[in-house]
Each structure stands twice: as C-alpha cells, then as structure tokens.
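Researcher: Structure for this, please.
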Amino acid sequence: MTSPASNGPLHAGELAIQRRYGVAEMGGRVAAMIRPEIAPTARDFLARQPFATAAVLDRESRPWAALWSGSAGFLNAVDEKTVRIAFSALDALTKTRVDWPGPVGLLALEPATRRRMRLNGRAAIGADGVLELHADEVYGNCPKYIQKRHLEPVNETPGETRFGEGPDERQWRWIKSADTFFLATHNPDGGADASHRGGSPGFVKRRGDRIFEFADYAGNNLFNSLGNLAVNPRLGVTFIDFPTGDVLQLTGHAELIDRAPDADDFAGSEGRIIRVEVEEWAEQAGAMPWRGEVTEPSPFNP
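Model: Predicted structure, token format:
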C-alpha cells in the first residue's frame, strides 16, 4: 500500500480494483485498521514466529516471495517502528539476489492459530550486519483459507539452491497438489506486499508449460495484491512442501481475468482468476528448519 494522503493508506491500483468489483466503500472502512506503528501485541506475535514470508525485489526489480526463518525471536521488534532480523535468517535467494536498501512486505502467519499480520516498509543492512525493517503499515488479516498445521523444528542442513526456467513435471505435481502458497507483489509508488493464498489441494491449475491459474477467493476487500498487479503485473509465488521443508520459489507475470462465477473448475470462486506465467524458479531441498502436517483444513475452502 502506502499512497498519497488523500487516499489514506490505499494507492490508485487498489482503489481501481475495489471500484471494479463494487467494494470501494467497504474497502475504505477496512483500510481504517492499518496503522503506521507496531503495537505491543503485534511485537509479541512476531516474537513467537519461526518463519515469515517477505516480498522482496531482485536486482532486475522482479518480486520474489522469500522465506525467512529461525528460532522464535528472530523477528525482533525493538520499538514501534523497527524490526531487526539477523542476516543468517534470510533465505538463500535474498542473500544472493537482493540489494539493500529496498522495499519489503512482511507476512507473519501462525498456522496453529490461523493468525496472521502484515508489515510493509523499507529495509537496510545496519552496521552490525542485521537487517532493519522500518514499518510504514501494520495490520492483521482474517483467518480465511489458512490450513491449521503443527510445526516441529528440525536440525538438518539445507541443500543447494537450484535455478531454472519452466517447471519440470515433478515441480508441476507439487504445484497442483498444494493447499497453500505465498504471493509477493510490488507497486513502484506503494512498496512491496506479501500475502497468503489457500484452498483445497488442486486449487492451483496448470494451463501450459509455464502457466498456471488460481481463483481469487473472497477476502477483506482491500485487494492489496490485485491492486499492485493492476499497476505492475510482476509477481513472486512460493510453495512449501511442509512434510519435507523443501521450497519452490517462482517469479513471473500475472494477468487478472474475469469469468462467470463457477463457470469452470474453480468451484466457489467469485469469477476472479489470476493467470501466472513463470519466468524463473528457484528450488532448495530442506530449506525450512521445521516440518509440519495439516491438522485441520480451513472451513472456508470451497
């Protein structure tokens, strides 16, 4: 988000998408929850989390959904504006392909409780080698489409990160069986944003050698991700294999398509379909220092 004061915290892309779907008034009311500071309860929530998704830009200004992880407390909100994150907690992609300072959209999600919060701002590496994220926007999200999971820490050495272009058949099976992924978008005038998408396994559909689609289910009507895509069609998508800790990160371009609700195999959708064309992928075995299984699917899943 982050926009001219006359629009409050919403930028032109978000406002355009809200008007497109007739929810501008509701979106404006929901936007009132966005705050410029990290409240004590939000600091406590961040301190409990073993991982977070971060929307970051590589040197070609392409968004990636990075996954940062560590022991509880690695997200250290030292005051109402600043989160300090050890460089060791950043994933391999962030360490090798991102220059600082730069925009960051941070999403902390707690699978066991379905709670999540977003923190958008800018980050830089301090003199002590710690990444310092300065908060511009902090807000919570509803629990929709989050599968409950129990996570257990493991002590295993991650594999090397591999890069490629079109996903192979094994990766496509992974994508098509997913019940969760994370999304990174960026608006040059509004910064980066990280979000979550969930549904029943199979809610992501393959449409070609490099193309997949997913439905945009009803949410909070802020349309942060679609608003960013309205002005910048680049995006990053990340899938986690929770039982193994493997991570597949994709970057590419997206197109928003309107279809009649339930006119195809996207049961329960409202007719908003996002088509993604993959430009590049990065995969790392055992990247996450924990493993998890679903304990309860989301009751909101179509």
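Researcher: Any notable elements?
Model: The first strand starts at residue 51 and ends at 57. Residues 12-20 form the longest helix (9 residues).
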